[in-house]
Amino acid sequence: MRILVIGATGQVGRTAVAALQGHEIVSASRGTDPSVDITDTASIERLFASIGQVDAVVVAVGEVPFRPLADLGRADYESALSGKVLSQLDVVRIGTPYVRDGGSITLTSGILSREPIAAGAAASLANGALESFVLAAATELPRGIRINAVSPSVLEDAPSYHSSFPGFVPVSSHRVGQAFAKSVLGVQTGRVLAVD
Ligand SMILES: NC(=O)c1ccc[n+]([C@@H]2O[C@H](COP(=O)([O-])OP(=O)(O)OC[C@H]3O[C@@H](n4cnc5c(N)ncnc54)[C@H](OP(=O)(O)O)[C@@H]3O)[C@@H](O)[C@H]2O)c1
Question: Fewer CB within 10 Å, N or C, the chain?
Answer without folding.
Answer: C
